[in-house]
Amino acid sequence: MKKIEFTQGQYHIDGFVLSAESCPVVYCLMDAASVAELAECLDGEKLVLAAVSGMDWADDLSPWPAPRAFRGGHDFGGRADAYLQGLVQGVIPAVEQRLSFSPVCRVIGGYSLAGLCALYAMYRTDCFDRLVCASGSLWYDGFLDFMRQNSLRRVPEAAYFSLGDKEKQTRNQRMAVVEDCMKEATAFLQQQGTRTIFEQNPGGHFNESTERLAKGIRWALNG
Fold it and tell me: Given strand 2-8, what is the order of strands in its sheet?
């Protein structure tokens, strides 16, 4: 396992090369603290894992401004367009120039708000071939309407969606619709010709997030 680590602008990239030959590159939008654990979960897969951290979670991963979701939090800044521009124009070229081969395909994935941003990326760039949206925040205000009213820049070959079976059991009325939103998003991409799956995992939103993300990546590559 070869390690790649560098900074590109405000973002930090932790890369793990798990193959010496041409293979998929998986771009994960995630907290740096979980990167090594995710790489261990994926040991045995032929891929390059490029984990991108250093973003402002609520601002950089949200597609447009919206009120805060929790008391004590702050409002969502809606800066995902600028974040994705930096990813496409800066991070991806910097990662791939460090490899000795061209990627077979590119996968974008994330958990929670990062899962939402990964799906949003399919409407803003044509760089990615496959998608992993694990416990994605698809309850986000207006997001399903956005999907209905806009076209994908690239229809993904495969899209993995998952949710904890207790996630809809919340007093927060905005978040309580997450399962319905996830199922509708899955069906919508399937109608576009994408190979899709929606899986439910035991537990709530904060259970085994790294393992769930790894499970989605495996499916997107091999499912």
Answer: 2-8, 11-17, 48-53, 25-29, 106-111, 130-134, 158-164, 195-201
